[in-house]
Amino acid sequence: MTKENFLITGLVCIVFGGFLTVGGLWAMGFTVGLFGVVFFVVGMTLNRQGSLTPEEVAAWSPEQAPLPDAGRFMYRVDVTLDDPVRSSILCGPCGHLEVVEGPRPAAYRCPACDRPLWDEEE
């Protein structure tokens, strides 16, 4: 994320410096634009470092903890986009986490607290 931050900051400073120069503020526009070029060059020289391996990404699941009550009970569903497609379902009231194979099911009842989380009638 650091590389992207330097690149975006550099571009913003270059554009802002150009606007200041067009507005007649030569010294300030040159200074801001020069810092923009420096930020952009630093961003281009940084290497992008992946912090997680593909195995760690595939094994990820949300933290197993109860969710706060927001006027009604909440739940969380995370579905992987790559194969194998898995859905992790976190029940908010009891904090039970279950991983099911395939996309999000049409209906789900928490096996720990026996509460229906959703039911999509077709």
Q: Could you explain the architecture of this structure?
A:
There is one protein chain. By secondary structure, the chain is α+β, with helices and mostly antiparallel strands. It folds into two domains: 44 residues; 65 residues, no CATH class. It contains three helices and five strands. The strands form two sheets. A three-stranded antiparallel sheet has the order 1-2-3, with no helix packed on it. Helix 1 runs antiparallel to helix 2. The longest helix has 21 residues. It is elongated, with a radius of gyration of 24 Å. The model has no long low-confidence stretch (mean pLDDT 86).
Question: What would the keywords be for this entry?
Answer:
2 domains, single chain, 5 strands, 3-stranded antiparallel β-sheet, two-stranded antiparallel sheet, alpha+beta, 3 helices, 122 residues
